[in-house]
Design goal:
Helix content: 40-55%
Shape: globular
Order of helices and strands: EHEHEHEHHEHHHEHHEHEH
Number of strands: 8
Strand order of the largest sheet: 1-2-3-4-5-6-7-8
CATH class: Alpha Beta
Number of helices: 12
CATH architecture: Alpha-Beta Barrel
Largest sheet: 8 strands, parallel, barrel
CATH topology: TIM Barrel
Bound molecules: phosphoenolpyruvate
Length: about 260
Amino acid sequence: MTTRRPIIAGNWKMNLGVAEGVALASEIRNRCSRFRDIDVVVAPAATSLYPVAQRLADSPIGVAAQNCHAEDKGAFTGELSPVQLADVGCRYVIVGHSERRALFGETDEGVGKKARALHDHGLIPIVCVGESLAEREAGETLDVVLRQLDAGLAGLQPDEIVRTVVAYEPVWAIGTGRTATPAQAQDVHAALRKRIAELASPAVADKVRLQYGGSVKPDNIAALMAQPDIDGALVGGASLTADSFARIVAYENKDA
Ligand code: PEP
């Protein structure tokens, strides 16, 4: 029985305008605020961060950005800094999402720098790791995710690692409808937690929250959350409607 507080985050990616995002946030607030034993987070597109954060300001629901730059400010056209994201009301930032690694050249080292910068400004990084299908089929899953984990946490002190959220997202399960089995996900989560124990300490590893991501839906969340090392989910497609996201958040409440 875990004592870690579950955390479910919805990654809206490059979807929804401001009015749509605020409306979705309002519905999620109405449906999810009563669940007090779980952290609920939404990650709107950058254009909606401020209005969504305003809409959720008096609620327990947190707001995440989907990316950041590691520097505080400067000549980095098109980028947003942790300082700016904190300023608009973000509490979390997703870093190292596989789409950013695959499509925008994000490196393991760069993810580590972003995680470091986020802690410098009191923000919580959600550090994503995950193997491609080719890597899984080549038997390289643990090599890949542990390398990504090592780099993502490299610059952090133990107390910062405790506050960091790690999301295991097998690339072959993202947006494909193909979910890792609970046992496959648990195997990787257990390996991640063991590595955190080696990098920091068993006490730290015991506190770090590990999310699973990859085609999470209302009908598979409960089996995933029943695994001893799965503490939450990072949800893409199913976070875009209040009904499916709220049913994921309410995974223990059959009447929700
Ligand atoms: C994601 O992109 O983080 C994700 C898990 O997407 P989906 O739930 O749509 O697979």
